[in-house]
């Protein structure tokens, strides 16, 4: 007997034949306000069962791609450094096997070891970052390894001109100054993103990281640090479509915290974003 086993809808390829690997990273060990993002990958898979596999926005179906759902990473509790090392090890394996990688957090700190795995193979990469928060703290409560410092950590390796930030509307004054002075910094909205991204060269490897709290809390209340003044689903969709036909090699979606939205709409929104974002891998 062979009963139903729930992958994200349409992600049915075997590992060996797949071009794209989808993986959950259920880690929220440094969540500074409200934890719970560890429950996101499973919730997103469940909500995906109500989605169409066809995107009318892009006139493409995720079934036309070859996507393997690898399940959720098995991670130790408590020790951030060991967790990050483990995430890096798993991600490096996928990248070394020639896969494009779509990861679902978890909190934003998971992007750091994912970035390191991608950077090893693509040192000329760009990082495109959508978020309500700068994530540029040098440390948070004395801790360098924090979801509030992930972009600053990445910026130790990746040069200033290689990082783009969109939708930022919260952080310390020094973080905003740092962003303005050092990064390609587009705060408060995502209106410029489509144009800026579509003008990037077609061959340069791109890592897209989306903190789902870039969306307005009225659209997406289910997140650990909601920040009023955000963008709509459609605005975000138009923005990321600027990456269509670019050389996107890795994507992550982080910071969904399903239990803070009793309606379940936040998780459905995240699932729909997964569908639209993973289509950026199609050529
Ligand atoms: Mn954020």
Helix content estimate:
25-40%
Oligomeric status of the shown chains? single chain
- Structural class comes to alpha/beta
The CATH topology name reads Arginase, Chain A
Q: What is the CATH homology-level superfamily?
A: Ureohydrolase domain
Please summarize what this structure is:
The chain is of the alpha/beta class and 283 residues long. The chain has a single domain, classed as Ureohydrolase domain (Arginase, Chain A, 3-Layer(aba) Sandwich), CATH 3.40.800.10.
Search tags:
283 residues, alpha/beta, Arginase, Chain A, eight-stranded parallel sheet, two-stranded antiparallel ribbon, 29% helix, globular, binds manganese (II) ion
Describe this structure in words.
By secondary structure, the chain is of the alpha/beta class. The chain has a single domain (20-281), classed as Arginase, Chain A (3-Layer(aba) Sandwich). It has helices at 40-48, 80-96, 111-121, 150-155, 173-182, 193-198, 233-240, 265-278; strands at 20-25, 54-55, 60-61, 67-72, 100-105, 126-130, 163-166, 184-186, 205-211, 247-254. The strands form two sheets. It has an eight-stranded parallel sheet, with helices on both faces. Helix 1 packs across helix 8 and helix 2 runs parallel beside helix 3 (111-121). The longest helix is centred in the first third of the chain and has 17 residues, at 80-96. It binds manganese (II) ion. Manganese (II) ion binds at residues 131-133, 211, 213, 225, 255. Manganese (II) ion is lined by residues 131-133, 211, 213, 225, 255.
């Amino acid at each position: 007997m062979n009963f139903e086993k729930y992958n994200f809808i349409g992600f049915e390829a075997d590992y060996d034949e797949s071009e794209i690997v989808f993986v959950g990273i259920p880690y929220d060990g440094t969540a500074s306000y409200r934890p719970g993002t560890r429950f996101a990958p499973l919730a997103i898979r469940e909500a995906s069962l109500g989605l169409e596999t066809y995107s009318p926005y892009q006139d493409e179906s995720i079934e036309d791609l070859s996507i393997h759902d690898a399940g959720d990473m098995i991670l130790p509790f408590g020790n951030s450094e060991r967790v990050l090392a483990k995430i890096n090890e798993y991600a490096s394996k996928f990248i070394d096997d020639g896969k494009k990688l779509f990861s679902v957090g978890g909190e934003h700190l998971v992007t750091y070891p994912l970035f390191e795995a991608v950077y090893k193979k693509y040192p000329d990469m760009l990082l495109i970052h959508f978020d309500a928060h700068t994530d540029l703290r040098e440390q948070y409560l004395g801790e360098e390894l924090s979801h509030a410092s992930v972009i600053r950590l990445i910026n130790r390796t990746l040069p200033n001109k290689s990082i783009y930030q969109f939708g930022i509307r919260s952080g310390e004054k020094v973080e905003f100054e740092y962003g303005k002075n050092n990064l390609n910094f587009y705060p408060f909205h995502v209106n410029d993103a489509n144009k800026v991204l579509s003008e990037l060269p077609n061959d340069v490897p791109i890592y897209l990281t989306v903190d789902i709290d870039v969306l307005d809390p009225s659209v997406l209340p289910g997140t650990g640090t909601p920040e009023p003044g955000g963008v709509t689903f459609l605005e975000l969709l138009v923005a990321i479509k600027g990456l269509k036909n670019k050389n996107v090699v890795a994507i992550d979606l982080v910071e969904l915290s399903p239990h803070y939205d009793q309606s379940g709409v936040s998780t459905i929104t995240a699932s729909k974003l997964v569908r639209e974002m993973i289509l950026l891998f199609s050529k």
